[in-house]
Structure prediction request, 102 residues.
Amino acid sequence: MDAMNEYNSVITLTDENGNECEFDVMDVVELDGKEYAVLIALDGDVEEELDPELIILRVVHTPDNYVSFEKIEDEAELNSVFEEFYSHVEMSINAMESDDED
Prediction:
């Protein structure tokens, strides 16, 4: 099963100050036995930005069947997840280009 199917494509998260923000779940990356959500904020200006900021959070499954997210403190871990996400993007682009050639 595709990991994206487990999550809504738009989620609302609350920051440490109690502010809510909506995010689009771009991808869910599995790496070294862990899941990571790659998010982009839906603040209305995303389509106009040439280089929108991605947010990567570790997905945590709780014993009571809830999903929560943790900030990644380790820069090496964060970079590894980004590289895996980027490879997903490249594969998707290559697949679309192959479909266009057929």
Remarks:
- The radius of gyration is 15 Å.
- The longest helix spans residues 75-101.
- Residues 3-101 form one domain.
- Residues 53 and 79 are 14 Å apart (CA to CA).
